[in-house]
Structures are given as C-alpha cells and as structure tokens.
Amino acid sequence: MTATQPTTTVYLIPCWLEDQTLAPIPAYILDAVKTCNVFFVENERSARRYLKTLWKEMVIDQYEWHAIHKLEPETLDTFRAALTAGKTIGILSEAGCPGIADPGQLLIAIAHENGATVRPLVGPSSILLALMASGLNGQQFKFNGYLPVDSAARTAAIRNLETESARAGCTQIFIETPYRNNQLLAALLATCRPSTRLTIATNLTGPTEYIRTHPISRWRQLSPPPADPAKSTDPAKSTDSAKSSHLPDLHKQPTIFCFLA
C-alpha cells in the first residue's frame, strides 16, 4: 500500500459529554477544527450541531461529512481516498474521545497503515473521568464495555470480573445502555461481595453530575429512588440529604460503573 503524503493529518476531536456543555472542551480544539476539510463522524446531525456551537461562524456546507455508522466498506474506501488526496481529516465520536469505546478506532488504524499523522486532542472522556473520581486503583484498570443483557450471563460476568479484580487489584470499568442502567445496578447489588467498592458516575461534566463510591454493603442500605420525580436523586433536584439516603435513578442517564474487589 502506498503511503500518503507526510502532510496528511487526522485529528481526533473530542466532543462534549453533556449536550451544549462546552466548558470541558479546550480552546485549541477549535484551531484543529478550522484546518479540517472533511469530517468522519459517528452521528452527522449531532456532530454538525456540536461544531456549529463550538464555532458559530462555521459554514457547514463547505465541508465533507461522512457518517461512520458500522464502518461499511464504502466508508473505509472513502476514508482511504481522503487520505490519499491529502485532505486534513477530523474524526468525531458521539460523545467523548474518538477511538475510546468508539468505532473510530478502525479509521485510525487505516490512517497509520497509510502513513498519515494522527493527532489526538485533549478532551473529556467519561471513562477516565469516572476512574479519576472513583478513588479506586488508577494504576491497574480495565474497560470491559457492555456486560451481557441476559440475566444469567450478566451475573456470571459480574462474578468473573469481581474475581479478576480481587486477584489482580484491578479496577473494572463498564457501561450499559442507559435505559437498562437500573437493572445493571440491581444486578451488581445482588451479586457483588459486601466489601467490593462500587463507583457510580453519571451525567459527567453536566449540571446534574453524580459521582459516588461506596462498598456494596453501603449501597444496599440505601432506599430505592423516590417515585416522585421532584424528589429524584438528580443533583439538580434534590438536597444533599436526599442524595445520600437514596439510590440514584439512572434510567436513561449516561453512566459509568467501576468496581474494585
């Protein structure tokens, strides 16, 4: 395979975690965006909205846009063609940093195969933010993606991760589809050892951010979330006393789970 020209650059552009929350986005990212000719994005509509918020003067139609989706062969060929043409490329995931729990990693691998310069840019990663705030082992950790949906398989996976955590002193990090977060939390409380420390980090960087680490024994003592949404554990809607006495309602809230046995 013929390498591209040395001037070909691929920028890995972080995106906000919380819609319309630009504070965690470093100013230098805008400089990189302004040099790009073409964007490969996980979701074209939300990527356009994000960049337009970041750079109000941006004329969206002056740029090429390609949705990554499941990285069909046509998308990969288009990416290779952009590299060969020497275009400056930006890759954006739906939230957080490209290449981290994100399909953009395959495009990044192709960029390296073709001799392009890959420039990762600093920005919010929910996985790293959760680990930073957890108080768990930041020297050894493992991101496991999604756990199984099937109840029995999920329980087995939790037990295996907990055993590995206890053996290696490794922090286990995982996620769930937001509408199944409460079911995963229930499974963790039912399955894990009382001494295992569990971190729940939800709505990171947003105004309703919630981060707590407790032993499983402590989490089990907390009451279920209030049925009245006005008394929710949403930090924007509840008192410190309510937040400390109830389990958080994680339904449809982007959440990172971490534990250390």
How would you describe what is shown here?
This protein has helices at 28-35, 44-54, 73-84, 105-113, 126-134, 151-168, 181-191, 216-221, 240-245; strands at residues 9-13, 38-41, 64-67, 89-92, 117-120, 141-146, 171-175, 197-202, 210-215, 255-260. The chain has 261 residues and is of the alpha/beta class. The strands form 2 sheets. Strands 3-2-4-1-5 form a 5-stranded parallel β-sheet, with helices on both faces. It has a 5-stranded mixed β-sheet with strand order 6-7-10-8-9. 36% of the residues are buried. The mean pLDDT is 91.
Structural class: alpha/beta
Low-confidence stretches: none
Helix content: 25-40%
For the biggest sheet, the summary is: 5 strands, parallel
Rg result: 21 Å
For the termini, the CA-CA separation is 47 Å
Strand percentage lies at 15-25%
DSSP strand tally = 10
Helix and strand pattern? EHEHEHEHEHEHEHEEHHE
Q: What is the count of helical runs? A: 9
Mean pLDDT: 91
What is the spatial order of strands in the main beta sheet? 3-2-4-1-5
The best one-word shape is: elongated
